[in-house]
Amino acid sequence: MDDSSSTGPSGVGHRNAASATLTAILDRFSRAGRIAPLGDDERLDGRRCLITGASSGLGKAIAIELARRGAELVLACRSGIPEVGQEITRLTGNDRIEMLQVDLADLESVHALADTLAKSGRRFDVVILNAGLMARSARRSAQGYEIMFAVHFLANRLLLERLLADRVIAARGPGDPGPAPRIIFVTSESHRSSAPIDFDRFGEFVEYGIRDGMKQYASSKLHMCTLVTELSRRLAPGGKVGVSVHALCPGPVDSNIAREAPGWLAPVISFVFGLFFQAPGRAAEPAVFLACSREIEGRPNMYLHMMREKSVSPEARDPEKGRRLMAESDRLLGRHLRTSG
Hints:
Number of strands: 8
Largest sheet: 8 strands, mixed
Order of helices and strands: HEHEHEHEHEHEHHHEEHH
Structural class: alpha/beta
Number of helices: 11
Strand order of the largest sheet: 3-2-1-4-5-6-7-8
């Protein structure tokens, strides 16, 4: 597809998963077009943030930096409770950190998290949807969906539907004081290498092995990027921002996202990650920018690749595909799309 933003400074592009990975590595070392990082004066004092998948890696690094900038944090994680929150308090001196358990591969667990947040009466200023995985081979979620499709797309679709309906994320109306809430998706440039979404087989389980895992990962990220742009259309109609929706690709991160790699490949991955990939603290910069920057207040639908602004792919920007994505996911989610009672 023709997309002027589909290549970075390296010019390699995203024709397939391998070239997308090479582009990400090469782009990491380029300084062209980078946004300046935030100053220490851009803080979140008095603001409440929800982060998913914050028990390790990128999510934990984001949590540490937002805590350092004064945010009150709720970390929704599958593990690391309460040790990770206690560690972040020790590192930052911020004791306004709570951890809640959620398994994003189980829609009932997502629903239970939404119930807990709704019943608490809390409102969130920033929601960062960071949790993710790279599956070694095909497996089913609790409801029978392919695991990356379930975690990267369906769980986020359900969680946001609930948080918005229950006013845990409360859209700013005309004349309301203060900044609009921000929703930030951690996605991937690999979405550009995905085949178009197959709406005729939407949500069907897909069998794959280690050779095709990256293709399925890219597909799940295309679903996510399409959701980002469609939500932004709905939550900022005509540019009147009730809720700002943004997304980012952090670039290559030295994290445990490839934890399911087979044993023989693990040393190779560890070597490549350590040599070429960013430490999580550095990779957290675009998420922290989107959460804290005063400069982007009132602006919808910003996408950062590392610290460069781009557009998502034309596939992800297509309004008709965005509308169909919402309709088809409504059908799949069914009874899960309900407010707390």
